């Protein structure tokens, strides 16, 4: 594993943190979309409407366009809650990370960076963020990180969180 350094958030990390946050939330859209497609109601809706269009008009093209149109609508329905959450977060606590996560006593926001491991899209240093201890988000992140506790970076982030909690 590449060497890494865990430190507190700095203002120059803002764009990278927001990018990781946005990509991390929107990452779940395709899996949710395919999960929705596997549901019987969605299956019935897609093929029922397309079949009804075919039976009503006799046109395969109109039936295919209805099918594709419904796929687009379902994609938008699945994507909307995720993008709405990102928009809400970017206009509330993520607008001013320092004020939201670092102003209270005992609050922390860590950034783990590696020099050798590059982000595939931009070639920047890779960073992982962890919100302040005691918040609901922090608890959820720690629960998810139990699966990565065996990795060096995951255990180091958890150790940093425990030290911060004990010192405050």
Describe this structure in words.
Keywords: Membrane, Transferase, Transmembrane, Transmembrane helix. The longest helix is centred in the middle third of the chain and has 32 residues, at 60-91. This protein is mostly helical and 168 residues long. It has 2 domains: 4-10 and 98-167, no CATH class; 29-91. It has a 3-stranded antiparallel β-sheet with strand order 1-2-3. 61% of the residues lie in helices and 12% in strands.
What's the structural blueprint in terms of helices and strands?
Layout: E1 4-8, H1 14-26, H2 29-37, H3 40-57, H4 60-91, H5 97-101, E2 110-118, E3 125-130, H6 136-145, H7 152-167
Helix pairs in contact: 1-4, 2-4, 3-4
Keywords: Membrane, Transferase, Transmembrane, Transmembrane helix
Protein name: N-acetyltransferase domain-containing protein
Transmembrane segments: 43-76
Which series of helices and strands comes N to C? EHHHHHEEHH
Report mean pLDDT, rounded to a whole number. 76
Multimeric status of the protein: single chain
Low-confidence segments, given as residue ranges, are 116-128
Instruction: State the share of residues found in helices, binned by percent.
Output: 55-70%
Provide the spatial order of strands within the biggest beta sheet.
Answer: 1-2-3
Number of strands: 3
Share of residues in strands: 5-15%
Shape: elongated
Structural class determined from secondary elements:
mainly alpha
Radius of gyration, whole Å: 22 Å
Number of helices: 7
Major sheet: size, sense and barrel closure?
3 strands, antiparallel
Domain tally: 2
Distance between the termini: 31 Å
